[in-house]
Amino acid sequence: MRILFTIFWIAAVLAVAVLGIFDTVEAGEPQSQQHVVEIRNLQFVPKELEVKPGDTITWINYDLVPHTVTADDESWDSGLINANAQWQTVVKADMFASYFCRFHPTMKARLDIVLK
What we know:
By secondary structure, the chain is of the alpha/beta class.
């Protein structure tokens, strides 16, 4: 009986130690974040947004007219975002940062992609 209790106790201590190690590893990893860019009055709000690879950005169109979110080099594009609709993407390290609306070329904004 005493041997079973000792084995149980050792197993419990090891389990707590292993879980503590995993918690430490997870805490050290950067957490991805959710960001929202509003499309209002023919503007992207905010015009500049600091993001990291793995973050998700959602653009929400509050205007009455459709818009796009298109990289300046056209490497990524939302397609048509109708009024009261939204589009999202996950940030990549090599993603082109400046973007505009195809229908309204004066609508411009930028992502500041932080790699650390």
